[in-house]
Structure formats: C-alpha cells, structure tokens
Amino acid sequence: MRTLATPPHARPWRRDVRLLVQLARMLFGYAVAGGRVRRRYRALEARGGTLWLDEEGPHEHREAALRR
Amino acid sequence: MNGSVPPPSYAFGYRRQPESGNAINGVGEPRRVRARPVFHASGGERLAWKALDDFFSIINPWRVIRHVLFNTWQLRRSEGPVAAAQRAVTDPAAMAAEIKALARRLGACVVGVAEVTDDALYEGREPGLRYAVCLGLEMDRGEMVHAPEARAAAEMMRTYRELGRIAVELAEAIRAMGWPARAYGNPNSTDILLIPLAIRAGLGELGKHGSLIGREHGSNFRLAAVLTDLPLALDAPVDAGVEDVCTVCRRCVDDCPPRAILEQKELVRGERKWYVDFDKCIPYFVKTYGCAICIEVCPWSEPGRGPAISERVLAVRRERRDAGKLSALPRSARTGQPA
Fold it and tell me: What is the dihedral of CA B228, B234, B237, B240, to 10 degrees?
C-alpha cells in the first residue's frame, strides 16, 4: 500500500537534475522514436493499414519522468 | 465543434485485445470497490491499455507536448519541506475561506474542499492526507470550439499546465504554514480521482458525458487538487439541476462520433451513475488527441448560459413540487370551494 503523503526530497537539486535528465530523454524519445512511429502510423493510415500497438507501438511514455 | 469531424475508424489497434476497459472500470460491479487505473498513467504502471496510452503520448503534436513537459517540470515541487512552526487553526471555516481566496488569487476559477475518501482513491493507495482542496480552471472557449482538433488539445494541456502551477503554489503556501500538502496537477495521476472529489467539494455534478458540469462554466473547465492535513471546513455537493437536464438532453449522445455515451445510467462500483463506454470512447479520444466534443457541445458549456439553464430547471422543479403538493391537498383546499 502506498501512502500519498511521501517525505520530501532530502536534496532538491538532485531531484531536479534527475528530472531534467528524464525530461531530456523524454524529448529525445518523442522526437526520434516517436517520429518513427508517427511516420509509420501516417503511412498505414493513408493506405488503410493498421499499426498493431501491442507489437510495434511505442513503449516509452511521455510522462515516464513523473511516475505518479 | 466546427464542421465535420473525423470518422470513428482507426489505423491502430491490438492484435490481442486487452481486457475491456468497462470491466476494469467496474461496470456491473454491485460492491463499492476502489477504482482501478486502466489507461492514463504516468509511465510507471503496466496498465491493461498502456500500449494505447503510450501511442497517445507519442502522436500528440508538439504544441500539446510542450505543455506536458513544462507541467512535468513544475510538478517537481508538488511536495516539499514543511515549515517547522505550525500555524494553529481554531476556525476551519475561516481557514477554508483564506485558502479559497488564495487559490482564486493564484488564478483558480472555482475552489472547494472535500474529504479524501475511498471513492476518490485508486486501489492500493492510502491518502495519508485528509482534505482535498479542489481547483477548477476555465478553458479558452475560442480554442475549445475547435474540438476535436489539435488546437483544442493544446488548450486542454495549457489549462492543466496553468492548474499545475496554481496547485504547486497553493501547496507551497500551505507547507509554509507548517502543514503537509501535496499538489495534484497531473491529470494522469493514478493516485486520486479528481471528479468524485470535485463533486463533493461542490464544483459541479456528474454529467451524462462522464465529465463534471459546473453551474458557471459547464464542462469547459479542468481540475486539479491539493491534498493536505490543514484543518478546513468541508463544502457540500451542489444541485444546479444538471441531473434534470441530462436525463432529457441528448446533445452529447447524438454528437459523439463513436456512440460511446450511454443514454441510461449504469451500475459502476456499487453506484448507479452516468457512464461512457470506455472501449468505444478511448480509441476516438486517442485518434483526435483528446476529443472533447461532448464537453464542448454540452449546452452548459456555452459562456453565460449555465446559470440561466440552472435557474430555469430549478424553477420548473419547484413548480412541479408545488403542483404535487397542491394535488395532494383535498379538492376543497385546492379550489377554495367548500367541501
């Protein structure tokens, strides 16, 4: 069971650096891997095909940095 | 909603269909059990419909994503150190008024306080904090009338980003008073359910389209919350007549392209309430970056119209009640003639 009242971070700067790194990864994933998925999806959409999400969809979430 | 909308046909899908989102949401479940997260998440959870949510997060245009990035960054301050000196609270009503005034100064349009109870928590979560200060912020109607286009999605995320700022700053102000507080400015949180909290905090009522309808802003607003232990007087649910209107109105039902909005209430986790068919709604929601057709065609969402609808509906209800009382009286009392 997880309680919603979690203790504050002991070192906020560490939290900030970690989050910045995660946001950079998120941005990179959106641009590169996301770009690939978007291009494939648009191509399939144009010719009436289907992108099978459980097989070839993205596996990273834009909010992976938040975690809750 | 302007002109024609995309058809409910999809160039994405599952080879192995996940468990129905309606089953996960507890449709037909007679017991009052906690909600289970099904689709939106913050990335960490392996939810049944995660692949679709991942896809949703990646096909959204940059004008939407940039707000998500900013919101994620500012929400790092959603919790933090609590001041050692605690301000004593002898009058929770006065404190609630002070907190609401602060929330409004920070930019919130509507504010209310509710107790955090089981119906507003996902399974596996314990509140730890007793009260929820619920915040609502109106969206720019000029942008939202373009739903289900990307510019409406951008406006939704801009509003959430602004709400995130308000929630974070409010939580910081409460912590400065020596009371714990945590901001919930991420609409995809799998900790709390904002709608049940907002209903109990008096921000609005549940509409047929599964979203909140408030007296002033209809459904054209978004929600956030701050959870805290600061003693606050609770607000009560409001009755603006939404139930009466939704019972007879079909606007959202008729305008929903995938026909996901049900005309009758469903039994959901022990409560009969309005419910939207998840399996029909969500693919269209993903295809259109968040859709929002139902909340924008809702008559309550037209600027300035909500209070007038409410007054009219409540007047009709009063008349019917009085007529009912009248018809229950003996004929002599009704006509003024001797029996």
Answer: -110
pLDDT tens per residue, range B18-75: 999 999 999 999 999 999 999 887 656 778 898 899 899 899 999 999 999 999 999 9
Is residue A10 within 8 angstroms of chain B, CB to CB?
no
Distance from the A52 Cα atom to the nearest Cα atom in chain B, whole angstroms: 5
Assess A64–B contact: CB distance below 8 Å, yes or no. yes
Contact B72 A58 (CB under 8 A): no
Instruction: Report ipTM (2 d.p.).
Output: 0.82
Q: Which one of B19, B55, B77, B175 would you mutate to disrupt binding with A, by most A Cβ within 10 Å of its Cβ?
A: B55
